[in-house]
Specification:
By secondary structure, the protein is of the alpha+beta class. It has helices at about 1-25, 60-75, 80-85, 185-190; strands at about 25-30, 40-45, 50-55, 75-80, 95-105, 115-125, 140-150, 155-165, 170-180. The chain has one domain (about 5-190).
Length: about 200
């Protein structure tokens, strides 16, 4: 009888340890997943400067473009176990209509940056389940420009990203809620001396 209890107990401990190990290894991304790579990435600074980077540009431009995308994608990636401890478990990246329109220049207050992902073709706004986002009678929403304000704090933050389908818009009305730690991204943008 004691052997059966011991074997059962060891089996349960083994299963529990395996579950914890898997949760520590399996990542979940709480950032907005880009449907495709943007045509251009523009980094706006609160100093009023902007720099544009392209995957088809010079070696420096291409390297910077790829590094920004890598750091953006990594900023929202957390292990399943970590996301449970920091309170992200069950959170979703959701689109929404902003309560008030924001001017693009207000998205990067003093000491911060804003990354603009620019697309040649419209990207459909998607709900967290992958379905098309529909807003009232206006139907399915799409965007050509995605604005990601970049925070310098070294912690996971609830963030608002802004989108517009208008190439010349100076205000944005639709948003995505996301969660990420942008500290490394902000640190990298601060090294780009030309913005």
């Amino acid at each position: 009888m004691n052997k059966v209890i011991a074997i059962t107990s060891l089996s349960l401990v083994g299963v529990l340890m395996l579950a914890v190990i898997l949760m520590a290894l399996i990542p979940i991304n709480y950032n907005l997943k880009l449907q495709e790579k943007p045509s251009l990435i523009t980094v706006h600074s609160s100093a009023g400067k902007s720099s544009v980077f392209s995957a088809d540009g010079s070696a420096t431009s291409k390297e910077t473009y790829n590094k920004i995308l890598e750091l953006y994608n990594n900023s929202g990636s957390f292990s399943t176990l970590n996301s449970l401890f920091i309170g992200l478990w069950g959170k979703k990246v959701e689109p929404d209509r902003a309560t008030t329109s924001q001017t693009i220049s207000s998205l990067y207050p003093s000491g911060t940056y804003c990354i603009e992902f620019l697309y040649d073709t419209s990207q459909k706004m998607r709900n967290s389940d992958g379905s098309a986002y529909v807003w009232q009678a206006n139907g399915e929403q799409s965007y050509k420009r995605l604005f990601v304000p970049v925070k310098s704090v070294n912690e996971v933050s609830a963030l608002t990203y802004y989108v517009t389908d208008n190439d010349t818009a100076t205000t944005v009305s639709f948003t995505y809620s996301a969660y990420s730690n942008q500290f490394e991204l902000h640190k990298y943008l601060a090294t780009l001396t030309y913005i």
